[in-house]
Amino acid sequence: MPDAYPPENSLVIYKGRPARVKREADKLEIEIWGGEVARVRVKDVTLLHPGPLRSLAELELAPRFDPSDASLPDDVLTAWEMLAGSTTTLAELAELAYAAFTPASAWAAWLLVSDGLYFHGDVDKVIANTQEEVRQKQAARAADAAEKAAWNAFLGRVRAGQPVLADRPGYAVEDGRYLKEVEALAFGRSERSRVMAALGREESPENAHALLLELGFWDETVNPHPRRLDLPLSAPDLPLPDLADEPRRDLTRLAAFAIDDAATETPDDALSFELGADGGWAGGRLWVHVADAAALVAPDSPLDLEARGRGATLYLPEVHVHMLPLAATPLLGLGLAEVSPALSFGLDLDAEGRVIGTEIVASWVRVTRVTYEEVEARIADEPFATLHRLAEAYRDQRRARGAVVIDLPEADVRVVEGQVILKPVLPLRSRALVEEAMVMAGEAAARFAIERGIPIPLASQEPPDTEERPETLSGMFALRKTLRRRQYRVSPVSAGEEPAGHAGLGLAAYAQVTSPLRRYLDLVAHQQLRAALGQTTEGSRARQPLSEQQVLERIGAAEAILGSLREAERLSEQHWKLVYLKRQGKWRGDGIVVEQRQPWRLLQGKRNDLVVIPELGLETTVLKDAGAMHLGAEPALDSRVSLSLASVDLPRLDARFRPEM
Fold first, then answer.
1. Cβ neighbours of 546 (radius 10 Å)
2. pTM value?
């Protein structure tokens, strides 16, 4: 920067633009190329030539250097060849290249230096690049120019809506490279996208998803939601230890049934029933056999740490991402081998079907796999008839204690070989039978642990604000919104301490213990119960149970990931339901009104009612003209309405339905 004021009518550079000094004062007054006049500080300008420069128009006489043209005028080329690799000044460069140092030649020389191809530096120190440096810069500029051309061509294709798949016209290799960063935004791995910004589109995962669909880079089968939540999409690849050589009770004499959906991959629970001496429940025993995952997975082992980080098996319609290595399923799954290892919960019953005693043993069981539908057809046969009566009695006991029953329509969605299979979940008695038996085992395990001071995770839930227990869909929908979030705590180990109850189930204490292959906290409960019973793991000696603090730490680790797992499952089910609807084309069906929007929510003569579509297990809003439906302006709650599909917005997980007149 100059130490003194540049003289009037001198040539200076201000913010990269040529300017003429008009006069000196406390601040310089300069005329900038284009006619603008400004007052600036002396340190903000660089003197190129002392003048006199009467008009900036004189600079138009300067020889022009076109950066897009790699060639130089002969005199300038000669000057560069003479100076290559050496240092000079701007004035000397102007003299050598243009035979005079004038404002015009100074400006021309400065353009050469500013461009940087043949020269670089500042006014007092101009460095002439070597031939190799010039070749490298030219190659880099050529690559930049090619990249810019490819980028502009890509944007042109995108704006024109041309597909980018390789087997379609208009495809260029660069398209995939550019769209990978849009894909990163759609997957939630990035918050910015150069492509989206250049197209003037909001940089959101949903908009990125929409663009990828428009261009054919993605199709409807891409489910981005688990990756947005940063969840693993493959099972752990860890070796399994040998099953511990330990005493196990032989329960193979009992008929044991693993009742599940036909597509279930990990059968991890089964039921047996031993009648009492009088042939009734009194003195009888319900056995709930559970896959003995803790026999292989010791606390703080690599398998345990991996399962802890995953929290649970991730159930997506297109894939099940197992919490434990895949090899654990054939080894531990009940009914997958002739005889299976289990941790069996023996529940002793009184005449009313209440649990009055619990025994937990490591066992061998012989299990037959049956589906819900098969059991439903045999519900009058033993042992299913007794199991069904017991389940009903236990359910009635829970309801008498205020258990909350939410029975909204559900639909199971699976993707098999690219086909979306959507089936309503039927309210089968066999399904309720299994659910009640699992809850009974959870209550018994919680009591067992509390009575013996064994710290295990307990699932608890505060009661809702209302004591009403509606039976209509609309009533249950409204009740669901009042339910408190389930929490996990440690079973009390101090004398006199009360456990945290589970109001939703109508239980004073409850632990989840029937799915240790699929849920980490179930696995922790099994590890604790086995340790307290003196069972060995991995062939080693029996372990001491974990402390209350250690169990709390495991609860915290699981809760940190469980929310993301459930969200990924919910969003993925919605995604594939909408794919199913898109493939159906002109879908028509029935919905049931479960919520009426109040008059103050009317918008432009339309009201927005919430309906449940039982066939799809889908909750959605239906916009309709007030008073225009055959049901009237105010369709009654729980009334059935005929609907047709209006549109599907897959990126935003939104389906619109219209009422059929």
1. 21
2. 0.84
